[in-house]
């Protein structure tokens, strides 16, 4: 069995989420996911249902497009080389100057000569060719070359915005899709990558990933071989063909729904062009006929393999549905309360998660600081589409990065539509029962929860054929063969994978070893152990360009961000901390200004005005000291050695209490009085002494009456 298949769910048919449409702001930061909106808010407007219309390409018009004018050549599409064995060429003698080539090397295929009576066999006799080739008339077999590539055009009355191609069994082909834009022009061609995941409903069902084409009612689909060679069509005489007829913008009537290529001229081993030449001429060499016929009628023996594939393809036209966005928050629902402890998406405590007491406990508790994740409920997942419960692996060993391909031209609001379209196509059209990716990230840095079951758990996805077990699949939304991922996308990918690998206790810069399972598109045979970086690309495991050239180049930076050693977004200037201002009207600010403000002995303020824990006083910190204020003491400056000694005793919580006077400098040192005594700084010894005014005076008086020497003054703790 190729894959372990999960058991069908008996409860998912009754589970439906009232969801949101197009969540917006997802901030980057932290190290673990949290939901982006408050689940306690009232239900958001319902998202309109996602619809998929399956259309067989055999039932739609076939057209022929010029490779250059249509842009197919820029997309890498070519035509097969022309087989000249099917073209009858006239014999064209080539005059060689006498003496240039030795006469013995020139083949002689002259016909027997006829000598007129009395000529004596003179070489001036006329020669008669044994046969002459005549150019075929235009339109006859061998008269010309293909005008362009065979393309299918699919349309429907209602708009759609995503397209996927499906087929049964194996297919060694690629596809390019372009959409008609609102102005009537055709957009750029986008490639459709093959989807690498098992079908729970139908293991033989194969398909491409769905590509985003924007809102449209018509698309053109060019199917080629794996090498990018398309089926040629529209063969005509190049001398009589009007080049304008191959212009894709020209008005053309679609041909029949099944394209038929010209028959191959019949040829035998002896049907070789010959000619008779005179001395000094070079005769044409004989052609070697091909042993296999060229293109023939679709479906016939020897038919074009690409055309055979096209006849079995179906196009899935996807309308992801729409919904309104809360203009106050940029997403559906209100912003989450920062004091709340939100559940991990998919966790048993998540209100949007299906009730299932058999779910395993989380591997580790989620960290307290969390980057925001848009949950399935928030992007509009119809849980009724799922046909199985999540399947959990024992461990996580690798994170595999993908791209979704398709157009890069989408808005922040349309990202949720793309996720809904991928979900419906994976779950229903391909029969995967859920979206294949575990998580998706758009170019704005928004992180979307993918496959159900919990982002902090080892949920087995359907994203990398042969290597779905023990991996987490993350898809960057867009075609990263065309453009580089945005800094916001790279940062979010790194942040999320940093958290996910931390949960699994894996090093983002380390390596992991996986064992390949059987899959047709895998680079490795079944049972083969493969060691790759912990964060790898899809192309490391499968025969694919995914995650695109630029996406793959971003992997080292993603690893650095995940390991906490890098950032894709330029650092913003550090925010200026809020501090006390000289314009403040409080007693502390006025006292600070009286000492000279920022240029005085205290220097700049480093905090705003704060309140002591017991609520009886206020204070502010400065570069060179503090100012304390209370109703009983007023505003007093504390700095230098006395401030250090007071701090060592516990500030206002010490037996001295709050300062009641500024410092006083005398001949022997500096003193400052407090509610419970005095601190004296001896300038000679550098020692701060504590003089408890009332207690010391009473004790000294009592001791004098008894004849006992007065105790030495207390020394403050060293600052």
TrEMBL record:
Every Peptidoglycan recognition protein family domain range: 371-519
Region (Disordered): 100-148, 179-204, 227-305, 321-357
One Pfam family this sequence matches: LGFP
Membrane-spanning parts: none
Residue spans of biased composition, Low complexity class: 101-134, 230-261
Gene Ontology biological-process entries: peptidoglycan catabolic process
UniProt-listed SUPFAM superfamilies: N-acetylmuramoyl-L-alanine amidase-like
Domain N-acetylmuramoyl-L-alanine amidase, chain residue ranges per copy: 385-548
Biased composition annotated in UniProt, kind: Polar residues: 270-279
GO molecular function ontology, one term from the record: zinc ion binding
Listed PANTHER family: PEPTIDOGLYCAN RECOGNITION PROTEIN, PEPTIDOGLYCAN-RECOGNITION PROTEIN LC-RELATED
Family under the similarity heading: Belongs to the N-acetylmuramoyl-L-alanine amidase 2 family.
Protein name per its UniProtKB record: Uncharacterized protein with LGFP repeats
Species, as recorded: Williamsia limnetica
